[in-house]
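Please, structure for the following, as tokens.
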Amino acid sequence: MNYEITGSTGLTALLGSPVAHSISPQMHNEAFRQLGLDYVYLAFDITPGQLKETFLGLKALNIRGFNLTMPLKTEIISYLDGLTPAARLAGAVNTVYRQDSCYIGHTTDGIGYMRSISDAGHQIIGKKMTLLGAGGAATAICVQAALDGVAAIDMFRRKNTAFGKTAEFCEKVSAETSCPIRLFDLADTHQLSCSIAESAVLTNATNVGMAPDSQRSLLPDVSFLHPNLLVSDIIYNPRQTLLMRQAQEAGCKCINGLYMLLFQGAAAFRCWTGQDMPVEVIRKKYFTDERTN
């Protein structure tokens, strides 16, 4: 099928920094081509200081929608016309779509994460999760996991000035989903060990271990891991992080963030086009099975 940019081509995009490594442009543009949709998806390296000016420019161009990656997932909220319930609860946005003349913030990270876990053949509903991080991806995962029926979540983050705000987030999500969510200091290694021992899944939702600084892990001791644990790292560059190597050595099952990217992208695609992304075509062309051990 021919695929050409025309005078009426709808613009979609990725905003963040860095973005040069992202496969989202290939994924979305191939999906547009497969379905014969007159859209194009571009990536723009944007820092927080550039976001307001960039967003106003994109609005003036009538952009159909866009994705946001770190560090813009919370920065964008103050510029939007509204939030979906999931984005409001998460306090983070990774997808913006146009509704009439308004721009609405949504989060598909949690949807993508939960679907990637089940797609890989793992079942975490009704079980406990230990979650590392409290940024935009972490809060989205926490919200969706709680909504979907994970039994309990222990969240760990560094105890800095934002710790109190994260504690309020945990209380709010617990109250609205009936999923017990506890927040702990990442430096509390005894509690981290206890939480992991009780959990079916350990999720790294931070950028620690991402290329080029890939020789880092938030896990202080590999003895915290147990063979019945699924270790999930939302990073996909590199495909195997230091945390995943540590987990494999401990006999754990592992999954990286590659398929979270695919499924969160499919959910965003639906927001912009009203159509389902041809996931199996995109999977075959751009994704490999380098996601589990």
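The chain has a mean pLDDT of 94. The radius of gyration is 19 Å.
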